[in-house]
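User: Fold both of these, please.

Assistant: Here is the first one.
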Amino acid sequence: MLHYESLIHVGREEIYQSFLNAFSDYQVPMNMTFPQFEKMLKRRGFDPNVSVGAFEGDTLVGFILNGCRTWNGKATAYDVGTGVVPDFRKQGITSRMLQTARQNFGKSGVEQYVLEVLTANTSAANIYTKNGFTVEREFLCCQMDGGKNRTDLLHQTEPVMDPDWELFRTFWDYQPSWQNSIQSIEAVRECFNVSAVRINNCIVGYGIIEKTTGEIPQIAVDRNWRDKGIGSSILADLMKQTSSNQIKILNIDTRSKAMLQFITAAGFHNTVNQYEMILELK
């Protein structure tokens, strides 16, 4: 008989193996190594106390991996990853894990619950809707082949060791998603390089890239300095600073016309889309 409890006493290796099994047939390949898995958990603020496992005896057959932080001024839980191993699907396990998670949130003072789900994964989206989640935003994910010899470096760039986040915020057209947030970047700061363009001794644009995966969580330019090749210069510099053959930008708010125009002009292509969904708890 299945039982549900937190993951506080479950080893990371066991969670990792269950994660690989549950995502073995996922639309987006999730074949990460154990160190990559641990880095993902650290970046997204994983907390085993508010995470939930479904167990058949002592075997972990389903999970909701949750992180906890302050998000938009509220105590927030974030679904790092939800999965059920193939042999145990279509038994209502995800809904029961969500119910258990909500009970745990009540004890922890969590005010809202945030997650992302592929727009094509209608069955999962329907489960979340039935459990009270509403769509907050739609995100676009894109990628392109690495091009370390791009020639569109029109402006001189410089590395940034200590990001001025208050300044960088003023460049944003939209709030980054949880995994792309300032807190997530700072959680694994050693994994990222930051590049900027400075004009008249003021930074007018910046970008951040993951050194090994080629993921760009943030890239933005001061509104007064757009359409002058600054974003393209930053992108060209970032592409030289990763060992990955692919460059990815995940969770672009589809309402940002400027960002959509930028990625199209740069040569990115759309891979998948996601919904950001929120459940208000208080």
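And the second sequence with its predicted structure:
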Amino acid sequence: MAGSSAKLRRLGAELRRLREAAERTQSELAEVLGRSHVSIVNWEHGKTRIGKSDLHVLLKELGASDDVREELEKLRLAGRSKGWWSVYKLPDWLRPLVSFESDASQITAFEPILIPGLLQTEDYSRAIHLAGPYTTPREVLEKRLELRKGRQRRLVGEHPLELHVVIAESALRLEVGGPAIMADQLWHLVRLASAPNIRIQVLPYRVGAHPAVCGNFAVLHFSDPKLDPPLGYADDAVGGHVIDDPSEVEVLLNMFADVRALALTEPESVDFIATVMDEYRARKT
């Protein structure tokens, strides 16, 4: 789903809904438009942009009302517009995440090794990128840090993103950048945990093996789940990828529910983070 965006995905969902309501097949519409079957599939999945003339013919064929045609043309144009992140020249694997993240109403995430990106301090984030420069070359590091600040602005404002994260104890113990940077990072978590839209839980070592031991993941939720069903996202060694298969997203949702139930409560988690923070502070002096 590397070429997709939130607006294109929504437009595709509407095209699919109209086609199914009209009881037409993708192959039939492909023949009418003189396009390949793959083109129709990609439009409906938001993977490629549909042109104005193709959209006009398609909506006429499906019997869409003038109001629907107008709204979907607006959505098509919105899908062409560049997001605030376009100036950062993001790699293909990161662009979809930032786009969907900007439209999401809630994110649930599990992190076994690192502090979640939306909760990282600048010093912590810089230290991570310097330690592993293969996905973020040093010449783009400062731009990537600016991007992260932009993404973190979703957590504040009139309609802030709701964020619920489960962080493994190992992420708190992994020393990134030295004890001073870690102490500041954990104090940042303690402060953020008091925000009404941010929930932080810690999965302690004593839990042992757990359902999400395979790695990190996030699930992005949207305000209208019927139109915009949840999406998953997972990092790998050379980037990351969006997960849009409903059955796979359901697995991620179940995994998050399991680790959330195994984790410390939110008040217990804040106390635990503060304890680890004090350990780092003691090493600073």
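The mean pLDDT is 91.
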